[in-house]
Amino acid sequence: MKNDLLACRHIGISKQDEEQMLQKIGVKSLDELIEKTIPANIRLKEPLALPAAMTEHEFGKHIAELAAKNKLYTTYIGMGWYNTITPAVIQRNVFENPVWYTSYTPYQTEVSQGRLEALLNFQTAVSDLTGMPLANCSLLDEATAAAEAVTMMYALRPRNMQKAGANVVFVDENIFPQTLAVMTTRAIPQGIELRVGKYAEMEFTPDIFACVLQYPNGNGCIEDYRAFVEKAHAAECKVAVAADILSLALLTPPGEWGADIVFGSTQRLGTPMFYGGPSAAYFATRDEYKRNMPGRIIGWSKDKYGKLCYRMALQTREQHIKREKATSNICTAQALLATMAGFYAVYHGPEGIRTIAERIHSIAAFLENSINKLGYKQVNKQYFDTLRFALPDNISAQQIRTIALSKEVNLRYFKNGDVGMSIDETTDIAAVNVLLSIFAIAAGKDWEKIHDVPEANTIDKELKRQSAYLTHEVFNKYHTETEMMRYIKRLDRKDISLTHSMISLGSCTMKLNAAAEMLPLSRPEFMNMHPLVPEEQAEGYRELIANLGEELKIITGFAGVSLQPNSGAAGEYAGLRVIRAYQESIGQGHRNKILIPASAHGTNPASAIQAGFTTVTCACDEHGNVDMDDLRAKAEANKDELAALMITYPSTHGIFETEIVEICRIIHACGAQVYMDGANMNAQVGLTNPGFIGADVCHLNLHKTFASPHGGGGPGVGPICVAEHLVPFLPGHELFGNTANEVSAAPFGSAGILPITYGYIRMMGTEGLTRATKVAILNANYLAACFNDTYGIVYRGANGFVGHEMILECRKVHEETGISENDIAKRLMDFGYHAPTLSFPVHGTLMIEPTESESLAELDNFVHVMLTIWEEIQEVKNGEADKADNVLVNAPHPEYELVADKWEHSYSREKAAYPIESVRENKFWVNVARVDNTLGDRKLLPTCYGSFE
User: Fold this and answer.
1) pLDDT digits over 70-113, tens only?
2) In what order do the strands lie in the sheet with 168-172?
């Protein structure tokens, strides 16, 4: 392998390291280890036929050429995506900062206080602007938030409605088409009917349980919904409102006129359009619905000494605990983008946000007046930023379009011939003059160049916002760049990310997100592209998407791919909808059962339920494999109703099951499909693949296997790859002329982060990707060998080896000493490490996945840390350490405790803070002591204004 390729920088293990590690494992070569780990009948016979690997320099030139093919026109299409200005201090210190983008979802509270605070800021901004008491910390996009709102309102139906089978949601016709399409995809399998019509004319009937409105509506018109909401509530119907978050700086928020749920996108709060995503959706509701709310909620708590801190609240609603009974299948959301939107609100504050909104509205008002004078008629009676013009008889939309394109402008063209525009934060005087010129030229009239736009507010008094927002001090003190930079830094110092140490979370694949992969994201050609521009303007994006799709098909062994799903859970859902659509097409639509092994990730049963299936659980045997007798029995008993098997490979237990081909054969013999969860694809790439094994569909986690960062809980991408017979049923979009199975607002989902995966594949090439997989398996087996004689490994494959991850046995430790896996996880923080995966998939254990990116030095340091902790456990076991007062049960030890005058523990400060020499050299100072996990659930405080007093 050439030494100037990314693989040399990405893979942490050298050939010399390899020999030492193989000796420890007890095999002679890396190939021997792979042969003993992966069953022979599924190993690929030929290398992947991918393009030759590029150097980082070559890829830099290649991606620049692709970017240059994107034509950045001034775009006023709107419809949920708007140009915005990302403050440089946020782009530089958050979006481009690996401390923020390489961190994990903040389950380990004590080493996540920075991003928890940033996300609480986001929730507070959303609550304030919407007038609702409770918001979550982001969803995937506005359209999926709408679908989640429908599901939630369905669950909240009063008993009499449930009894009567009320299953209709009224949707006002003036809603964005992509929102309606995703709601339709998600409603059908739930047995929910969407009834679309005019809100002003609709009559409430007993079968209607909820309504969905848009504010301002899809045409840009502000409607006064107050009387309608009163009527809905009188009929026991809930009301969800899709609201433009920036408009709420000027408009009466839906929370003040009775909405039960308010949702939408925060994209225009400083997040680039990225050709459709990623950006953070928001979701706000009433406090009494908190246990039905989808997504994660950040709340206040206290640590063991009473210090105020933050944690993720009400986690028992989530799929990883509730499985098929979860409120949603949401796993990854959009944490990084929510963090940016929260910082945008902090940086601008209430006055800044209001000024931006007023300027947008003033420009819209000026343009309405000026263009009307040219003979056009603006038809939105009330508006915030969006104008819709009816054209005079002698002017066609095509004439306007031709003139606009000649001036590199995209407008919105309505089906009836009207022309619209949505003004945004970037619209300036020069842009206003260009807009005026387009309409003047089309009308054959002169226009006067303007030099300023007067302040104006045309919104009716009863629609204007009177209430204050963003009153907390955090939104009123960081308005200079120096202060903002320091505030961001103060938060990021509280969090462990890959910039500090290995994050060994099993099933999460926290590998390197290489700088060469990340750099293209900051190119304006990728950042500032609207997803609905004409295809010829997005040539660079389209070429990248086509190339990436071909590469993923080769890697997975499949015939088709959709990049639309914008998280792993969304990919699961999309895959199941594709299976359903295929089976309906061959007269097998009655199949409604999904077989799922007991070891599966919680999203599997949650996604199956959301897709309208019922789940059948298949047992695992004592070795962690699928119990073949139970699988055969369950498949046979349900063969006429069986739609699919959902299986993760290698299994969530970290092993390559030898019977996987036979498992696929059994399922296919029943007339069902095999869905392979791609969570562990990092152990397959280049060595085997789902298509070769015999699966019909798989989803991939680009934020795991393919080097896209986790971002503290998103963004993720969950593309699905499918066999030939499923290709016609892949997710559609209005842009493609077919909205069947649409699962995301944007045609290509989170297109903005696809350059990362594209770069990873192009720079690694076949040889690099294959070696990465081998080294991931090598590293896991090395750690398994190092821990074998102490903790022990719960499951091993047929030949005694693990896959790319392993489950560390901690249950005996707890039985013998009272020290739990949670105590070990917290003690790791004192050593500067994030905990492995806790109590999943086996309760009372730790699951470790080292990935290929870590060096032998880092692996050895981690081993040293874990063995030091083992010795500390033995001290408790042997009575040398107090069972109730030891370094493990008291961990982590925060800085403020270690430097306090008073120290009352039975062990020294040094043992607590500097247990080994490497910690002394690179200490991560924990900010809080162990956090109370129940206080913040008993009293949920989801905004900055919260207080336990």
Assistant:
1) 999 999 999 999 999 999 999 999 999 999 999 999 999 999 99
2) 134-135, 281-285, 261-265, 238-243, 208-215, 168-172, 193-197
The answer to whether 312 touches 138, Cβ cutoff 8 Å, is no
Task: Map tokens 């505030």 to a residue.
Answer: 487
Residue with tokens 């199975």: 741
Residue 190 to residues 78, 640, 904, Cα–Cα distance (Å): 31, 21, 57
Q: What is the DSSP letter of 93?
A: I
CA–CA gap between residue 37 and residue 110 (Å, rounded): 37
> Tens of pLDDT along 128-144?
999 999 999 999 999 99
Rounded to an integer, what distance in angstroms lies between the CA atom of residue 282 and that of residue 142?
Answer: 7
On whether the CB atoms of residues 530 and 273 are closer than 8 A, the answer is yes
What's the CA gap between 296 and 669, in Å, rounded? Answer: 40
Question: 3-class DSSP state for residue 120?
Answer: helix
Query: Do 746 and 659 contact (CB within 8 A), yes or no?
Result: no
Query: If pLDDT is split at 50, 70 and 90, which confidence band does 336 have?
Result: very high
Smallest Cα–Cα separation from 857: which of 65, 7, 14, 115? 14
How many separate helices (H) and strands (E) can be counted in the chain? 32, 25
Contacts of 679 (CB under 8 A, 6+ apart): 507, 568, 601, 648, 652, 701, 704
Phi, psi of 384 (to 5 degrees): -105, -60
d(CA 847, CA 828): 14
What CA–CA distances, in Å, run from 278 to 184, 361, 515, 564?
22, 26, 19, 11
Helix (H/G/I), strand (E/B), else coil: 807: strand
How many angstroms separate the CA atoms of 509 and 628, rounded?
A: 28
Non-local CB neighbours of 837 within 8 Å, separated by 6+ positions: 505, 506, 507, 508, 846, 847, 848, 849
State if pTM tops 0.70. yes
CA distances to 651, 669, 895 from 642, rounded to whole Å, are: 21, 11, 56
pLDDT band at residue 600 using 50, 70 and 90 as cut-offs: confident
- The mean predicted confidence, pLDDT, of the chain is 96
Backbone angles phi, psi at 869, to 5 degrees: -65, -40
- Between strands 673-678 and 642-648, the pairing is parallel
Record the tokens describing residue 185, joined without a space. 């995809």
- Alpha-helical (H) ranges within 598-700 are 603-610, 628-637, 660-669, 690-693
**Cis ω before 278 (30° cut-off from 0):** yes
CB 521 within 8 A of CB 66: no
CA atoms within 13 A on the CB side of 727: 9
Residues contacting residue 865 through CB under 8 Å, at least 6 positions apart: 828, 831, 833, 916
Q: Report CA dihedral (297, 298, 299, 304) to the nearest 10 degrees.
A: 120
Question: What is the Cα Rg of the chain in Å?
Answer: 28
Nearest to 260 by CA among 196, 210, 195, 329: 210
d(CA 627, CA 608): 21
Longest dimension (CA), the chain: 94
Q: Using CA of residue 342, residue 347, residue 350, residue 356, what is the dihedral sign?
A: negative
751 neighbors 538 (Cβ within 8 angstroms): no
Tens of pLDDT, residue by residue over 772-793, are: 999 999 999 999 999 999 999 9
Q: What is the total residue count of the chain?
A: 949
Token code pair at residue 181: 């399409």
Q: Convert the pLDDT of each residue in 709-760 to its tens digit.
A: 999 999 999 999 999 999 999 999 999 989 999 999 999 999 999 999 999 9
Residue 804 is classified by DSSP as: S
Q: Which residue has the tokens 């910390």?
A: 137
Contact, 328 vs 362, CB < 8 A? no
